[in-house]
Amino acid sequence: MTKAQRALLISIVATVALYAVPQLHALAWPLILLSTLAHELGHGIAAMLVGCSFDQLVMYADASGVARWSGDPGRFARAAISAGGLMGPSIVAGALFGVARNERSARIAAMVLGVVLLAVDVLWVRNLFGFGFVALLGAGLLGLSARASAEVTRTTLLFVACQLALSVFSRGDYLFTDVAHTGAGVMPSDVAHIQAALILPYWIWGGFIGLLSVAVLWAGVRPWIRDSLPSVDAPKAKKASSTRKPRRRSQREG
């Protein structure tokens, strides 16, 4: 087993233990907040990509959140903004699985992600709870990249990736509801917004986005699975031996 595979195994075992051992359930709460952050940032980034303004991000202690944006996009752009939040956790998880394949890239990713989160905190987070959580997360990643060993940094990123990947399934019921219960009150869900923009029923869009999320996760996990499979060496080709015929020398006799 390679060091990378050992790091992934530790991350998976720790993830399972958090949900299987009742005494550890309290530790799962801040990890659920990670998926909330990825979700709301997905909305904000998608809004900016379609030419709108990302105004603010709010996170609540009940693991709900709200991303506010402004602009006058078309219906396809509005649907993309809603889908961006739903795809956020799987995209971040897939990216972390990718960068964690190498210890050096894992350390760089932790540093970059820490800086980005601190910038997000200053620019967009607008409530005390969310500000504190994002600040601690960003500072923690910066400290991890600067102080921890390369293997610990990689294992931590893989653990976060596992948590985000798990949230795609554990919070998947949100894909099939037309209302969202948040700390700001009850409002239409993301798939309900997509339905309003693109006509088809919300549960069809929920199923489609769920499949797309699984595909993104598979793209991130597939190299790990491929590396863990035993390699089959191709049979060595036999060297073809050729006998060089002696060159016939012609002589003139006279």
Structural features, described:
The protein is mainly alpha-helical. It has one domain. It is 65% helix and 8% strand. The protein has helices at residues 3-20, 25-49, 75-99, 103-123, 128-147, 150-170, 190-198, 202-228; strands at residues 53-59, 65-70, 179-182, 185-188. The strands form 2 sheets. Strands 1-2 form a two-stranded antiparallel sheet. It has a two-stranded antiparallel sheet with strand order 3-4. Strand 3 (179-182) and strand 4 form a beta hairpin. The radius of gyration is 26 Å and the shape is globular.
Q: If you average the pLDDT, what whole number results?
A: 87
Compute the separation of the termini in Å. 79 Å
Provide the succession of SSEs: HHEEHHHHEEHH
Q: How big is the Rg?
A: 26 Å
Q: Main β-sheet: number of strands, strand sense, barrel status?
A: 2 strands, antiparallel
How many individual β-strands? 4
Largest sheet: spatial strand order: 1-2
What is the helix fraction of residues, given as a range? 55-70%
Please, what is the oligomeric state?
Answer: single chain
The number of helices is 8
List the domain count as a whole number: 1
Judged by helices, strands and strand pairing, the structural class is mainly alpha
- What's the shape? globular
Low-confidence stretches: 234-243, 248-254
Beta-strand content: 5-15%
